[in-house]
Amino acid sequence: MFKVGKPVTGKDFFDRSKMLKTVKQQIINDQDFMIKAPRRYGKTSLVKQVLVDNSRPTLYLDLRRAPRLEVIAEQIIDFTYAQVGITGFFSKLKNDAFLLLRENRQTVTINLELFEYSVEFFAKQRDACDMLIEALEIANKISDELGSRFIFIFDEFQDIVKLDCGENDILEALRGAMQHHAAITYGFLGSIEHLMTEIFENKKSPFYNFCRKLKLTPFDIDELQEELISVLEKKRIVIENKKVFNDLLHRLGGHPSNTMLVMQNIYYLALEMELKVITDDTMTEAYENAYYEMLDLVEQYVHELKSKKHNYDVIYRLARGEEQALKGARLNQVYKSLMEMGYVFNEERGKYSVHDGFLVEYLKA
């Protein structure tokens, strides 16, 4: 219960009711979408929760684990041909292309010429960029032929620009193909916000206005509090002081991962000490345990903030509620940089807050 460190669905998924409905509508309406949010904010969990009851063939691609474009192409083709009963397409292709053809030529349930073309193309092709684009083209044709409309989710999509595409612009190549794919719904997730912004919101980018742009915000604390109290009560554990509990959630700033870590500590303390009532002291201990567990990561954030001029000073003053030394356009420029890095968000005109409550705690110390 209250799992952290990996994507969650079902009873372990909390809050996000509005965003769940929004993303579901994108998929129902075959609308491509992008979601950007800071690190450890639950983008992957959100999408996987949306897809829990989904019956359409779905491929999840984590670009952090794709060292080369051809690896992505192979995953797409393997997935695509698995939908027509040919498993391990690429391993069979590399082992014996003629055997792959002979074993499946009579039984393949899609256009035979497309299957034969796939085998011939990938048996000879060595250009990574061409492989990826052709894999997407073939996937679209097969999805259309099956009438099933595939869903492709690219996680950490901003990392695509790090992969070698030779002399080609990978974004230009992808946009040129994807914009014609009526049989695939694309979802793009990213945690490096300034790169996702550059890819999807810069007018000079090939992906400008390509899809619906969504941003994952902090937890809705009022909605979350009711859910958390309900879950604990089902375990016959009650919060003694709900006002203090609400203050604790606000102190965490609605940060999903940090909040779940504190809740996990509360639950474990209750189990270890056989508590049926969570006191203020128990909540304080749970918070401190979680904070020290994340301290190394917070110090990494501070190191990153100090690498850019003025960023650390501005966020330090913001966290402590102090007047900013910078003014006007220069201050706004730094706030923009901090938002793009995923450390602050704009609550309303001229008002900013720090995403991570543990970072605030560190800066106040």
Write a structural description.
This protein has three domains: 17-215, P-loop containing nucleotide triphosphate hydrolases (Rossmann fold), CATH 3.40.50.300; 221-293; 299-364. It has 17 helices and nine strands. The protein has helices at 17-28, 43-50, 69-82, 89-95, 97-104, 112-124, 128-146, 170-178, 193-201, 221-234, 242-251, 256-272, 280-293, 295-306, 311-320, 328-341, 357-364, and strands at residues 33-36, 58-62, 150-155, 184-190, 212-215, 238-239, 277-278, 344-348, 351-354. The strands form three sheets. A five-stranded parallel sheet has the order 2-3-4-1-5, sandwiched between helices. Strands 6-7 form a two-stranded parallel sheet. Strands 8-9 form a two-stranded antiparallel ribbon. The two termini are 31 Å apart.
